[in-house]
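Question (not urgent): is this output format expected?
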Amino acid sequence: MKTVGIIINTAKPHAGSVLGSLAEILKKEGVEFVAEDSAATILKAKSKVAQASTFATGVDLLVAMGGDGTLLRAARLVGNSGVPILGINIGGLGFLTGVGEDLMEEALRSVLQGKYRIEERMVLEAELPDGTALTALNDIVVGMGSSRRIVDMVAYVGEEYVASFSGDGLIVSTPTGSTAYSLAAGGPIVYPTFDSIIITPICPHALGLRPMVLSPQVTFAVQIESGDASIVADGQEVREIASKDKVSIHRAGHRLKLLRPLTASFYKILREKLKWGGWRE
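Got this back:
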């Protein structure tokens, strides 16, 4: 790897010192690196400043330092370029940013030596009524708008009617996002490298409405029957949608590449981060 891009959540504790350590490792390994404005300011003359478009075209690897929100922002920066992302957790939960700052040096040296695996993750795309589109690594949420009133919705798979219901909204998630908002709303845990579309209602006014898992080959659509609503991609991009608007959501045409240490285990992360079982430990 010749050039590494760096983005960081500078609001995290010790962000400056961890960023400095990363820069020193890359310098010792003879790897050129570029950073976004906030990171470059901390590093001063040690780094070139990169424009957002650089991370999709001018780097071989993007290192995202922060929490899961920072990694989701990195996913938006690389888009469909195929640039892999390595997440370094300097935040709280850090489910996606699986490498802790205490293991950063070891993990980074392993990556530079080619000792890693690439996990390709499914991405969702939502087509909006105005002809624009949103993409998401975790989830796309259709829910209450600015009025904060419940929304009446009709759901379809392809052209087939599925259900009508009122509620706060619904979460359409990828397997990667199944351990995020969808899980908190009662959705299932799905292994992150699977391909599927997970539908999880949010506070529906119906006792029988439960989450379901769809084939990744279908298109899921939701139409707003009454009330104002919003659509949110990965908690970062928000659009308002109106009554009678219909949003179609399907598997995107590209996948996101996440770099993982060879020893990384999804089940271990479940135990340590979400306290899933683990009583033997």
